[in-house]
Amino acid sequence: MRKVKSGTLYRVLDANFNRAKEGFRVCEDICRFVIDSKSGTKDYKDLRHDLTQAISALGLKDLIVARNIEGDVGKKSNLTESKREKVSDIFYANSQRVKESVRVIEEFAKMIDSKAAFKIKNIRYKVYALEKKIIVSL
After folding, report:
1. Which stretches in the chain have pLDDT values below 70?
2. Cα(130)–Cα(135) distance, rounded to whole angstroms?
3. At a CB cut-off of 8 Å and minimum separation 6, what does 53 contact?
4. Which has the closest alpha carbon to 91: 64, 42, 130, 119?
5. Domain range summary for the chain, segments of one domain joined by +
6. d(Cα 82, Cα 102) in Å, to the nearest integer?
């Protein structure tokens, strides 16, 4: 079985942390500016901050040091990312991005800190519930 090198591990975490935070911000701004949801805005902002706090236990500096944008073989976007017709399409795409990224972070965090991984798992379940709450408003 192949063991993941720490640089590779942190690179996976960094990419998914950035992806999740970006998706959280898009969902937060839809709640704030499109549907004028004070609670949705606060909930997404809180989850974004909760994720940052949980990731801090894994070493934020290590994540940034492991970043390799030039060597990323998957950085090219695909056609489905370049077209959105409705705000609900934007919300849904970013909500999926958040859930997928948080799941990857949770799985790889288990290799470093099981307590942090458990916190991240709780964030993921909160995202599921919040998505359901917000999607009906779009």
Report:
1. 1-4, 78-81
2. 9
3. 119
4. 130
5. 6-64+85-135
6. 23
Residues 6+ apart with CB under 8 A from 49: none
pLDDT tens string 101-130: 999 999 999 999 999 999 999 999 999 999
What's the token pair of residue 128? 């599921």
Which structure tokens are listed for 37?
A: 């949801």
Q: Which amino acid is at 80?
A: T
Dist CA 98 CA 44 (whole Å): 11
Q: Identify the three-state secondary structure at position 16.
A: helix
- Tell which residue, 29, 26, 32, 54, has the closest CA to residue 123: 54
Q: CA-CA distance, 105 to 85, in Å (whole number)?
A: 30
